[in-house]
User: Fold this.
Amino acid sequence: MNKAIILAGGQGKRMKADMPKPLFKVLGEPMLEWVISACEDGGAEDICVVKGFRGEMIDEYLSGRYQSVLQAERLGTGHAVMQAEQFLKQNTDGNTLVLCGDAPFIDGQTIKNSLTYHMNNDNAVTVITAELDNPYGYGRIIRTENGIGGIVEQKDADESQRKINEVNSGAYWFRTADLLDFLGKIDRNNAQGEYYLTDTVGIAVSEGKKAGAYKSANADIIKGANNRKDLLELNTYARMAVIEKHLENGVEFTCTDGVIIERDVKIGTGTEILPNTIIRGKTIIGNNCKIGAETVIENCTIGNNVVIDTAQVYNSVVEDDVKIEHYVHIRPDSVIRKNAYISDFVEIKNSIIGERTAVSHLVYIGDSDVGRKVNIGAGTVTVNYDGIAKSRCEIGDRSFVGCNTNLIAPVKLGKAVYTGAGTTVTRDIPDYALVIDRGVLKVKEGYTLRKFKTDK
Ligand code: UD1
Ligand code: CA
Assistant:
């Protein structure tokens, strides 16, 4: 298996935060996660992360998924890779990819293509490069007849070298055994007094080994963030790239203002996404839906022909032809079955709403199983919490729950039960019953005339 080392030691001082830079998020995921998923897509799945500043936060994020090593002092990119020596020595047969944890747009295809290039050319090291209009600050690639001769950092470059537009992305393939050899030979004789990983190129050439550059057509792989403004730019770039992918797939956007769609989201053709809509996590949305405006959907599976307008839906399933209207909050573990209708100001939690059921305005349904073709009247509340434990309510098919019904859980309404408006149901009701709980209505005529002396 190919190895990968991800350099994540940086603090990012200019971010002005007490957090390692690779943990800053682009489209909802840490930059480190983007780099990890590129490794996985590119077939370099034996990963070691080099941590430094607030390294425990890196470990907490990785939570055992991948190993890490600590670079206690920040002495340069070469020094960072040296910390992974034991990881490299575990198996020295194959190749090792080195990546920066704060350049999120490296991709699996570039990783695969550059490995093919690296192996076909029998290189000891292959640098992944790109051409920039403004190469300022990056290491410049010195090309030779049969490969590259070295990488010169901005601070070490002379006038003519600074004119070179081809730059080091900070991503490399090494033959693992050669990398171990080169690491032992890097010194600190440069303008920054650091151990430069880039010196491995010159060392390879001086040992008569081959060094090459794989130039990526996609210069975005270089993009990183040194400050909050850069991070916003990365987010804007990633946001529009995701939207463009959906446009190609036949998703409709009239205006993309405030639309944030995370990169794993899948959306069917003919679906329209309206402004200020945020779609996160592993959400899948079917065809011909209308989502938004002002809507948040996270980790949901949404069917076809669904309308969700000004609502929030989390970790739930919404089946075909459902309509969810304004200011609705669907909380985790809910299932809204086909053709159901959820009206304004409704909260649903950990509940199943059956096919063709209508839940009207101002309702709370929690921990409940609601059948088919049920009508839930306005103001109905499932009283699922007694202060100690949560209990479930069950409402049978074709029941008609009158306005302002309280269902004191645990309680079960059978099939086609009707409840009178204002009823508080405290025990199970059999099929086809009407339940009505109502005090004697008292009317005291002329009562308010004590206050209003006349009727004007
Ligand atoms: C490095 C390259 C440069 C390249 C650029 C691409 C060297 C000497 N130069 O520049 O040729 O164009 O990347 O962005 O390698 N890091 C550590 N520990 C350290 C130093 C760095 O973990 O001691 C990590 C950083 O967190 C970052 C990555 O290594 O993820 C690159 O470091 P950075 O300082 O941004 O790169 P430069 O040295 O400026
Ligand atoms: Ca630097």
About this structure: The two ends are 90 Å apart (CA to CA). The chain has a mean pLDDT of 96.
